[in-house]
Amino acid sequence: QHALEIVIEVSTRRGDFAQARAALESGRRENPANVTWNVYAAMLAWSEMRLDDAIAGFAQVLRDHPDHARYVMVENDHAVALWARGDVAAAEHWLRRGLTTWAGVPHAQCLSRMNLAAVLTCQGRAQEAAAELHAAHQLALDQHSRLFEGECQHRLGRLQLQCGQAPAARRSLDRALGCLSADQDPVRVAQWRACAALAALADGDLQAARSFMAQALAVPEALHRPLAVVRLLWAQAELALGEGDAAAARTHAERLVEMA
Fold it and tell me: If pLDDT is split at 50, 70 and 90, which confidence band does 99 have?
């Protein structure tokens, strides 16, 4: 079973959803009663941006196997899928419930607080979002986790950018990129650089924005992950507008609508 789980996770990360699905079905044939496969099915649906399927899958696990939430962060995953669909009130509920379930576990607390910050940002609650990010950042520092430290800075940069604080956003994103390691998830690298491009653009530095965008698009793995593609297209559309290329901006925006 463990080998199949590794295949699912690695294949999903690479955007090879067919291989991930094949490993998942193999696991289900071997042990159909194992709830772990239901969780992986929902996670795979989320990675493919089949949001309704992901939400239904996570909800079923939480309804039929509530104790499983103590072993896997199903509440967090369910909330993120709900947030992506626009159900921000429900997403906030499940994230706060997950914080209770995983009380005293720094890794889980850090991740859930970062996601809660994103949900609060969507509701215009910027001060609350910033407080959650600062709490998450302290948890990351306590764990000596460069990955979580960088993710906190990345999300703080996004929040600052949405609040019109472009110089602060650039500083936060510079700190985030400084936390990247050589073996970092390439999709994360691409998304952080795309965000850095938006911050540079908002700060009036078109040359830096073009450079960051080129670096983001040079990560081939990101082009096979729907969520990453959405964020790259958004950044490309904004950059095209900044360059005065309305036709290119429209093309990128139309692709975004098609994916939605």
Answer: very high
